[in-house]
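Continuing the batch. This is chain 6 of the set; chains 1 through 5 are on the previous pages. Same settings as before, nothing changed between runs. Recording input and output for traceability.
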Amino acid sequence: MPRPAFAVTTHLTCDHGHDHALCVLVSRQIPESLRCQSTGTPVDLGSGGGPVCHFPADLVSRVEYELRENFQESRRRGYVLIAA
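Output for chain 6:
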């Protein structure tokens, strides 16, 4: 049986210094306080972004790493912080 994906609220600072609020799908369970509040479809970006910004190709891995290594800080903020 496949594991369900959870959408985690993520704030990404792209390579041009812009802040992006995203919903990133991860394969681990996360607390309600970190889940995306959006009723729309979660964004699962592996790469891309826009005409100016470039998102890291390993965005999902970075989010999962932050959840493992800095869980309490992410929970305190209410989102996972990633700098590209």
